[in-house]
Design goal:
With 232 residues, this protein is of the alpha/beta class. It has one domain: Aldolase class I (TIM Barrel). The protein is 34% helix and 18% strand. It has nine helices and eight strands. The protein has helices spanning 20-29, 52-61, 79-85, 100-109, 124-128, 155-168, 195-204, 213-216, 221-229; strands at residues 7-10, 34-40, 65-71, 89-93, 113-118, 136-140, 187-190, 208-211. An eight-stranded parallel β-sheet has the order 1-8-7-6-5-4-3-2. Helix 4 links the parallel strand 4 and strand 5. Helix 1 (20-29) packs across helix 2 and helix 2 (52-61) packs parallel to helix 3 (79-85). The N and C termini lie close together (8 Å). It binds D-xylitol-5-phosphate and zinc ion (ZN). Residues 11, 36, 38, 69, 190, 210 line the site of zinc ion.
């Protein structure tokens, strides 16, 4: 993976929920590219987190690209509110709806980027069916629901399979990814990412790294972000 194509997206889930505005500024000042915001409904995953009101509050505190990852059933029903709240990309789960295509196209119609997420167990052949209908593929490297879990190694194979399919079919981003610095179709990984697992993911074809625990527990967030950019 080329250095200029690497995107670092700290997951605010690992931050201090009493000070979301300060945490957003800290992410911005640490040299990250995006802010990753995890929304969970207590049904699709066994945890509850933030909602559109918190996304709006984060949006007021920063100009950064808001990468919103929704782990909810019926994602279609939340798009409008998340767009109003300031989401720049909405990524929902393939496993959470029977209306995958409708939901992707509605997100795009709202002038927001559409991401499609896949749980570790979901077959790689499902992933490649949607490459030309979305703006990002998120390959979960843990089972969604909680921060601080262990990276699931077999997902590396799925990353390779997906990047090979993107290259073979010459799929390019519809509009340049995120902060415009990257020109490749993004494969995002999320869960258990640190400098060691990031290296494995980048080597095999991922370029967009979501990290929570590793960055927020580090003595210095800027240094930890640098370690991810320099891990190759
Ligand atoms: C898990 C979330 C992740 C989580 C990652 O379901 O989607 O974004 O915050 O946290 P770490 O980096 O701690 O695994
Ligand atoms: Zn996430």
């Amino acid at each position: 993976m080329k250095k200029e194509d690497i995107i670092i997206a700290p997951s605010i889930l690992a931050g201090d929920f009493g000070h979301l505005a300060d945490e957003s500024k800290r992410i911005e000042q640490s040299g990250a590219d995006h802010i990753h915001i995890d929304i969970m409904d207590g049904h699709f995953v066994p945890n509850l987190t933030l909602g559109p009101k918190a996304v709006a509050a984060i949006n007021r505190s920063t100009d950064m690209f808001l990468d919103v990852h929704i782990m909810v059933y019926n994602p279609y029903d939340y798009i409008e509110r998340l767009v109003e709240a300031g989401a720049d990309r909405i990524t929902f789960h393939f496993e959470a709806t029977e209306e995958v295509e409708e939901t992707l196209s509605y997100i795009r119609k709202c002038n927001v980027k559409a991401g499609l997420a896949f749980c570790p167990e979901t077959s790689e052949t499902m992933v490649t069916s949607y490459l030309d209908k979305c703006d990002l593929i998120l390959l979960m490297t843990v089972n969604p629901g909680f921060g601080g879990q262990k990276f699931i190694e077999p997902v590396l194979q799925k990353i390779k399979f997906t990047r090979d399919a993107i290259n073979k079919r010459k799929i390019t981003p519809r509009i340049p990814s995120g902060n415009n610095k990257s020109s490749i179709f993004p494969i995002q990984v999320d869960g258990g990412i640190d400098a060691e697992t990031a290296k494995k993911c980048l080597e095999i074809g991922a370029n967009d790294l979501v990290t929570g625990t590793y960055l927020f527990k580090a003595p210095s967030m800027p240094e930890a972000i640098k370690s991810l950019r320099d891990c190759l």
